[in-house]
Structure formats: C-alpha cells, structure tokens
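Exercise: predict the fold of this chain.
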Amino acid sequence: MLDILLLLMVFIWGTNYSIVKAAFTEIDPQAFNALRMIFASLVFGVILVWVRRPRATEPDGPAPGRLASIFYTPAPITRQDWIGLLGLGIVGHFFYQFFFIGGLARTTVANSSLMLAFTPVLIALLSAVLGQDRVTPRHWVGAALSMAGIYVVVSARTNPHAGSVGSTLAGDLMMFAAVCCWASYTLGARRLMTRHSPVGVTGLSMVIGTVLYVAAVSPHLLTVDLSAISVRTWAALAYSSLFALCVAYTIWYVAVRQIGSARTSVYSNLVPIVAMATAVVFLGASLTATKVAGAAAVLMGVALTRVKT
C-alpha cells in the first residue's frame, strides 16, 4: 500500500511541473508560489482544527499503525516542539521555496534536475552520519544507479550550446542550496513525528514558512490582478496547492516515518521520469531509446533501495 501511495506522490509531483509551467505565462512565478502556499496552509489549518476536536471514543488517540494516526495524535505541543516546527518552517518551506524558485529561474532545466537528483544521496549520507537510518551498500548502489539514470535522461534532453557554465553558476548554487534545505527538512521532522502526526508536522511548519514567504515576496503579490487570472490558472493553482503540497507532502512524511528517509527519498528520482512522460503525451516531445534506458536505470535503482535486508 505504501508503494502505491509513493507512486501517487511521484505522479502528482511529476505532472505538477507541466501544469504550473502553463500558469507562469499568466502570473508571476513568485506570486503564484505564494498563493499556492497560502491555499495549502489554509487546507492544512482546516484539517488540523477538525481533527483536534474532542474525541471521547479515543481519548489516547489512534494507534500508531492506524490510518487516523496520519492526521491526529493527542500529544501536546511542547516549547521544544514549537522551536522544531519553527526551524522546519524556515528551512523546509521558506528557504527551500526561495532557493528552488530562484535557482530554476537562473539555471537550465537540465542542471536543476541533476541537482535535485542528488537529494537521495545527500539524505542517505546525512542519515548515516546522524544514525537515523542504516544505509546498506545495496541502497548506495540503488541511489547511484538512479542518479545515473537521471543523468542519462537529462543529457538526452540537453542542448550543449544552451549556455556556459558560468552563466548558470548562481542558479546551480541556489538549486543545490534548495536540495540541502529539503534534505535537512526531511531529516529534521523525524523527531517530531515520533510524537505528532505527519499532517500536523507538515501543516504547522508550512503555515510558519508561508507567513515568512508571503512577507518576503509581497511586492510580487501586490502586482497581481486576481480578477484577470483565467479559470485554467486558478485550476492549476488548486491542483498544485491541494495535491502537490497537501497530499504529496503528507505521503512523503508517512513514508519517512515508516521506511526511513533514505529509502523514501529515492522515489524523488522518479519525478523527472513522470515529467518526461507527461511531456511526450501532452506536448509531443520525442521518446528516444536513450531516455528509455535512463528511465529503466532509475526504476532499477528505486527497486534496489526497497529490498529489505
């Protein structure tokens, strides 16, 4: 069941790129990002208020293995928890979103994908250093194979004359900073999720990050004429907020809690594959043998990391 949910997460994040890209032709990217974070925070807020209602039938909360534990745990939020949530909001939502959007605007799609493909390796390395996960040689091979597959896929799409390395250096560095933020966010939330639900940790940290993000990009928001936004763009905003942020983020942390950060993170390497397939179907992009070989390497890498030892 968890693998099905992770594949759903991959599908959501993979298709999200094409949907959001179309919206950027009509609205400023930073403003769009701020609006989707506001909407996602409101959704999480409503869920958190609803699930915290008095529960006479389960005063101690649902058992950890039950579906309801994803949404609700009765443990009080301590001062230390709030400090942790503040840190997650700053690193995982404010800085991650800032560096990701800024990096994507300053570098090529190929470079961005290669940077993001490094996420599982970074998380595995940090997990091993912190003692949170036991990373076996098989998992390292799987992560490396997935990275190699991503490189093959991206290289097949890259125009070698698109620009010099120096012209994209700032964006590359920002994208690498985004990867570091996401890895830190993923690992940093594990302690909180031993006491609190994935929805609670994600929702509260997102609200904190959204407040900071909206304050930082408010000049972009003030230039947006909401009445001029088309229905298609509003639909893209709803999809990206509800599914890419709310549903996919929750699945990510449910998996982190159950199978660990290192093995969960490798699934992020499937996202570019879905994005490529979406482009083939809806944008008429070509599908070459090289791309198929790269996609196969990514899938094999994910399979290796899911083998229990």
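Check your answer against the key: Residues 2-51+75-305 form one domain.
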